[in-house]
Design brief:
The chain is α/β, with parallel strands linked by helices. The chain has helices spanning about 15, 20-30, 75, 100-105, 115-130, 145-155, 175-180, 195-200, 205-220, 250-260, 295-305; strands at about 65-70, 80-85, 135-140, 165, 185-190, 225, 235-240, 265-270, 310.
Amino acid sequence: MFPATSSSTFRPAYLSLGGAELRRRAERAIATLADCRACPRDCRVNRLEDKWAACKTGRYAIVSSHFAHFGEEDCLRGWRGSGTIFFGHCNLRCVFCQNYDISQAIRPGRTAPGHRPEQIADMMLELQDQGCHNINFVTPEHVAPQVVEAVAVAADRGLALPIVYNTSAYDSLESIELMDGIVDIYMPDFKYWSAERSRTYLKAEDYPDAARAAIKAMYRQVRQLMVDSDGLARRGLIVRHLVMPGALDETRAILEWIAEELGRDTYVNLMDQYYPAGKVNADHHSEINRRLLSREFAEASGIARELGLRRLDARRPHPRHRGLHPLPAGILRSPEVQ
């Protein structure tokens, strides 16, 4: 049985850094925007002058929405929801993007005004006041420096929730280094293994190499996922993989890598909710213009079990939703951080 951390003694990583170090980290992070390499695109534009390139985001991050999200993994949503902050735009160009309207459907010169760090801190504190279990930054790859800046402000004003970094894994190692000691839970989505499919569907041939490097760096920081006695994630790595139609070879390669490089106790969420969206239709990328078949997902799950992956995400109502006591001892226990 794996040991679990105590919910009463948990302290987010960034509070251990201290306010002075957080502010220094934020200053260093924002300075990198002058020659931006926040993601593998390496655009090298001066975002401090509000210039932008691939991510269409200048000096300030753009937040599309923030709310208590009940659709995340059980260990994140719990019974009060995950405090999700969705950033606008993206550094990938996934042709099947299910959030196409906020990630890619934008014309130059029509960008929304950015949100200052104090505004994003207000959102975090609002979500904390609502009782959310964590702060969940979605699509932060292109605004990692601004995330550090906002967390520094929020921590000074009383934020005390774990930080979830919910990413496509198209992150630079420089950004992941900035997050060391700030992020408690990394949740990368490993999309494709092959450069060919990454070029076709993500418009980023280097995605697999970048994802492998970033996920290994994330793992070195936080190790395997730890949960508390209520089954809530406190620290560690969650790897997501959206199983795609006709691409079980990609799924196998990704799961083999996870088992070999990260270990069989890695918390993995195999997702079956693909549907045609974005630019996918009968005339464009018709080979993925269909939903995933149930037998395809069953085969993907079988591959995971065959490889010995022991911690596959499974959804069930939290006991507190039914007015019961917290999870009993022995349920959802996790390896300690090494």
